[in-house]
Amino acid sequence: MAEEKLVNDGSIRRSWVMILVILLRVLALFATAAATIVMALNKESHTFGVATVGNAPVTITVTAKFQHTPANIMFVVANGIASLHNLLMLSLVCFVNQKYDFKGLRFITVATLDMVTIAVLSGAATAVAFMGELARHGNSHARWNKICDNFDRFCDQASGAMLASYIGILFFMLVNLVNTFEHGRFNPSKNHNLSA
Questions:
Q1: Residue pair 164/31 in contact by the 8 Å Cβ criterion
Q2: What is the pTM of this model?
Q3: In this predicted model, which residue has the larger pLDDT, 97 or 80?
């Protein structure tokens, strides 16, 4: 009787953990998809007067696009891949039964893919953060001028995309943490016989 209650409690706990993981994955999906869309649509044009010939002003139109910086392109690709990865993991959770897990191989594979996704996302977000710092403040030593004083909306939109990406990274890390504590060696209900 007590063993049956323990089994029921374990299955209820697993159900709640599964719901938590699905919720965290959905939030990570929304964050990375938002970061992808916001950065991919990031574009702003300004017309500047450069000279006056006679009485007519000479102007040029300058457009700032995300495609002009390799870090921004990497950011869009990384967040797009993270979104697709999350869609794949959510479909696996919803449509593939636990009985197809061969000796815990599914957990190891998913955890590894999640960690690779976290690494790629954090690298892309950090590259965009450094480019954003350069765009906002320039570099007087290298004589690189700041551009955010002329392209405010472009820089604000990139900052929003970067923030969404970091939120997605946080949710990915929480998914990995919950899965590790549930399935890993830190789970006291599975490993009460482990010696130090």
A1: yes
A2: 0.79
A3: 80
